[in-house]
UniProtKB/TrEMBL annotation:
Its EC number is 2.4.2.52. GO terms for molecular function: glycosyltransferase activity; triphosphoribosyl-dephospho-CoA synthase activity. Belongs to the CitG/MdcB family. This is Probable 2-(5''-triphosphoribosyl)-3'-dephosphocoenzyme-A synthase. InterPro entries: CitG (IPR002736), TriPribosyl-deP-CoA_syn (IPR017555). Pfam families: CitG (PF01874). The lineage of its organism: Bacteria, Pseudomonadati, Pseudomonadota, Gammaproteobacteria, Pseudomonadales. Keywords: ATP-binding, Glycosyltransferase, Nucleotide-binding, Transferase. It is an enzyme of class 2 (transferase). It catalyses: 3'-dephospho-CoA + ATP = 2'-(5''-triphospho-alpha-D-ribosyl)-3'-dephospho-CoA + adenine. Involved in the formation of 2-(5''-phosphoribosyl)-3'-dephosphocoenzyme-A, the prosthetic group of the acyl-carrier protein of the malonate decarboxylase.
Amino acid sequence: MRALKLHELSLADRLADMAVDALIDEADLSPKPALVDRRGNGAHHDLHLGLMHASALSLWPMFKAMAEAAIEFGEVGLPLREALGRIGREGEQAMLVTTNGVNTHRGAIWALGLLTASAALEPRAITLNAARLALLNDRYAPQPMSHGAQVAQRYGARGAREEAQLGFPAVTQRGLPQLHQSRRRNAGEQNARLDALLAIMTELADTCVLYRAGTEGLQAMQHGAQAVLNAGGSATLAGRRSLHALDNQLLALNASPGGAADLLAACLFIDRLDGAL
Ligand SMILES: CC(C)(COP(=O)(O)OP(=O)(O)OC[C@H]1O[C@@H](n2cnc3c(N)ncnc32)[C@H](O[C@H]2O[C@H](COP(=O)(O)OP(=O)(O)OP(=O)(O)O)[C@@H](O)[C@H]2O)[C@@H]1O)[C@@H](O)C(=O)NCCC(=O)NCCS
Ligand SMILES: Nc1ncnc2[nH]cnc12
């Protein structure tokens, strides 16, 4: 019998692998402020690391189907956007069945779904085409009063939809440059990833934080993340002290930066893809 060779996997298979790997790497990364990681549940009573892993794995068929839809339609347009919306909603149901109703990866389905489809179309224009897809209006999308919609109404915050429509500036202008800079400084891979997460947190209007802890929580997240980077980043002793303080502060405010975590996964996905090109 012939052994399966890795390069015989289809493009859609490989993109789905990369998306799930990015989610698992994000979940495992420790110590993340107030988020689920290898140490514990952060500011969450209904999440744990095993659930994050199970949720990530449950999304593999969805990411593959999104990549296949992109290959089939072949261009950015309403037919592809609406196919992705339908596949995303089905993926969300699969996630909820796996987690027994807990929302683990709604934001990641949105961000990584768009990026996976976009990578299948043209890997070198990944954020541009993801933004073009996000700008199209899916006529079949329900309009629930989600947490994101509620804080948009209350604070006028730009949430997950706008972040994608702008081409993921938190990833391209904050996370990825910081990841590369910290690697160049020999911070070590885990510290470089933590620094990338912190860089994303410095400016993001994370609607999870706003919903749970209002503008006080958002400012604590943004200023605290900047303070860690100013202290030298997670690889330094001063940076670690500052990161520990940020963790305690966000826990006290019950402020979990779940949106920033999803965007770190997006950052790791693009980084992996760049390495494979
Ligand atoms: C278009 C959608 C993005 C809908 O977005 P909307 O603004 O309506 O918001 P939400 O439903 O609240 O979900 C958006 C999730 O995106 C993450 N996020 C938050 N801020 C940002 C940001 N600035 N930029 C990017 N991403 C952001 C975040 O996801 C994480 O948080 C989740 C937990 O959040 P929450 O439910 O609020 O949980 P808790 O506070 O913990 O709840 P309680 O315990 O208190 O009950 C977690 O899952 C992380 O993933 C936001 O939650 C899009 O979602 C959409 O339309 N989906 C429908 C399907 C579809 O069309 N898919 C298309 C696929 S291409
Ligand atoms: N590690 C994490 N902890 C809590 N919420 C999240 N949403 C996405 N990743 C998360």
